[in-house]
Amino acid sequence: MRYAVRSAIGAIMCALTATSCASLNINAIPAPGTSYQGGYNIVAEFANVLNLPDKAKVVLDGTTVGVVTKVSIASSQVDVTARIDRDVVVPSNIHALLQQATVLGDIYIALERGQDTRSAGPPLGPGGRIPLAQTTSPPQLEDTIAHLANFIGSGSIQRAQNTVIGINRVTPPKDELRRVVSQVTTDLKDLSNNIDNVDLLINSLYETSTVLATRTPALTLLLSPAGVAGFRRDVILGNIFGTLLPSLGSIYNGGYWLTPLIDSLGNALKAVQGSKQAVEAEYPAYRKFITDYFLPQDKYPAINITSIIGPDGRELSGNVEQVLRMLGAVP
After folding, report:
1. Any residues with CB less than 8 A from the CB of 48 and at least 6 apart, and which?
2. How confident is the model at residue 22, as a pLDDT?
3. CA torsion sign, 154 to 157 to 159 to 160?
4. Residues 6 or more apart whose Cβ sits within 8 Å of residue 198
5. In sequence order, which residues have a C-beta less than 8 Å from that of residue 71 and are 6 or more positions away?
């Protein structure tokens, strides 16, 4: 009888021990450091969280401000509950994403503010939610491996290697490369020393563009059908003159004999200039003779006899009738 009672008591104690061990959870052990027991909870909605560990840290502005306390699956997303320090204010327009500090490091939640810090939204209170539109989940590991396999298997590495080999082939030797670099350095130094000329060129281009802008109507006419037709005719005339110019050029090149001829022409013109000055000096006398003497006599031809002296020296102009008889003018 005693043996049966002892066996029953032992079985009960073993059952209690087994159930107590089954209820143990490593996550129930408090992690070292801040537990944020006095903080408040917020919920971030993610499309997936991959292998986000329990007690993962929450980082804001490079500082750990909370810890993940719960991960639960909702209808179309994963709700990640995080406890935030009570002294930290999380705006409602915050963006949450999953990051890794290193390649093999644990995943944590990073809270990033918007680019415009002046338009921060109202703070999230206890139980506030970060919607799915404001979260970024990492790509699936399977997709990453598949893309990596496609990249390796598609020959991209071989093509990159061939590209590097081709670049090495077309790269000039060291001496030639050194000469090219030296020439480029010299050109850049000249450009820096003559930057004022570059500014002058830019200003000239600006002024030219301004003039062209002010003459837009003329340019429009020039580019119109009538202007194009006129330009075509000018090209035809240019071809004709282009045929004649070589012959003129031969005359120009062999025209050294024209030098004494031109000198003689210069002396002749100088002599003509002196004659012109002499003619201008004599012109008043000629003009007076013609206008005062010649033209009146030519218009009214007559002879005025003022005195007649005879052979013996006597004045005969007094006896007019006798003089006219002598001339045969009076019978």
Report:
1. 78, 137, 138, 140
2. 47
3. positive
4. 191
5. 49, 52, 54, 78, 79, 80, 81
Extended strands (E) in the chain: 40-46, 57-60, 63-73, 78-84, 95-100, 107-112, 128-130, 135-136
C-alpha torsion 88→89→92→93, nearest 10: -80
Rounded Cα gap, residues 52 and 36, in angstroms: 19
77 and 83 Cβ atoms separated by less than 8 Å: no
Residues 6 or more apart whose CB falls under 8 angstroms from that of 321 comprise 330
Ramachandran region, residue 62 (left: φ > 0; alpha: ψ -120 to 50; beta: rest): left
Q: Do 78 and 49 contact (CB within 8 A), yes or no?
A: yes
> Is residue 155 left, alpha or beta, with left meaning phi > 0 and alpha meaning psi from -120 to 50?
left
C-alpha span between 49 and 109 (Å, rounded): 10
Asked whether 278 and 272 are in contact (CB, 8 A), the reply is: no
Q: What is the pTM of this model?
A: 0.40
> What does each C-alpha distance from 254 to 44, 67, 247, 251, 323 come to in angstroms?
96, 100, 11, 5, 81
Q: Are 128 and 92 in contact (CB under 8 A)?
A: yes
Q: Which residue has the tokens 């013109």?
A: 269
Block means of pLDDT (10 residues each) for the chain, 331 residues, are 58 59 52 71 87 86 88 87 89 87 80 73 86 82 74 80 84 81 89 87 91 87 87 86 64 62 84 82 84 73 69 71 68 63
Maximum distance among all alpha carbons in the chain?
A: 223
